[in-house]
Every structure is written in structure tokens, then in C-alpha cells.
Amino acid sequence: MTKRLPHPGNAPSAIALIAGPALFTAADFFWVGDAEYGLVAGTLLVLGSVAWIVGFAGIAAALRHDAPLIAGWGLLPAVYGAVCGGAAFGLQGVMNAVYGVDHAESLERLGEHPVIANLIFWIGGPAFPLTLLALAVYLLASRRIPRWTGLILAAGAVLFPLARIPRVEVIAVGADILMVIPAVFLATVLVRHGGLPRRADR
Description:
mainly alpha
């Protein structure tokens, strides 16, 4: 039996894949006021978004040989969602804190620019959890991850907006922790196997 050697070249993507949801989880504990992102939470959200992008790129690279269309086209909404669904909201929170603007006033000012608001926040924002949900469905359908991993990832993706729209901190923490679990699994597989091979039915 051939011993599988680790693939250290995938380590940056694997680390980022874990850091993304971990930083999002940490940001949840620094919400301020009426469950808003402030300086600390906003900064953690931006850094977590960068990590998610690197992690998504690692998954795309792992799928490129067997599923080039999924890998190539799937990375576009993944990056769009991470930038707009994560970093943009984080930067908004940081800027609001810096300039002393509350959440209601920020939304009112944003409403004066509907095209920009939709492209960045109201369309771009949902792209992040939708990407995670689509990823979970694809990885499950292609038998690249165990059922439990895909179901947890899907659950985290569904809970992500459900926590942030009404700003419920407990649900937000739970959703982000749920995403850490499959992220650790995916990161481990990337390093150990150098990709995401199809699994035998169990």
C-alpha cells in the first residue's frame, strides 16, 4: 500500500481555509452597540475575507484537474461574495466607527446610491453564503467529502445570513463555528492528499 505524503505546497491555502471562518467567529465577539461591526470586528472581518479568498483559491486549484469548469467559474462568485459579503461590511463598520456614523445613518446614506449599494452589499453580500451552499452541494454530489461535512457546511451557509440580517450574535457565532469544522476537514485533506479526491460510498 502506497503511503500518502503530505503536500506542503497546499499549506497556505489550508491555513487560510481555517483562518477565514475562525476570524469571522472572532469578529462576532466584538460587535458593538446594536450588534454592529466596529473597529475590531470590522478589521477581523476584512482579514477573514482575505483568508477565505485564499482558501477558495486552494479549493479551486484542487478541483481544476477533474472539474475545470466548476473550479474556474466557481471561483468568480466565491471571490465576489468574500469581498462584498465580508470585506465590504467590515470596511463599512470600520469607517462608521472612525467617522462616528451610526448604522441607521449609514444605511440612509447608502440608500442614496442604489446601484452601488446593490452591487456591493445587497447582491454581493448574499453571494458569500450562496457560494458556500453551492460548494457544499457540489462536494456532496461529487462524493469528495463525507456527508456530515457537507451537511455542516450547508447548515453554516444557511445560518450565516439568518444571523446577520436580524443581527443575532448567538446564531452568528454558531454559524461561523459550524463553518470552522468542515474547513478544518477540507484543509487536512488538501495537505494530506494534495486535492479533493472522490470518496468511495460508505
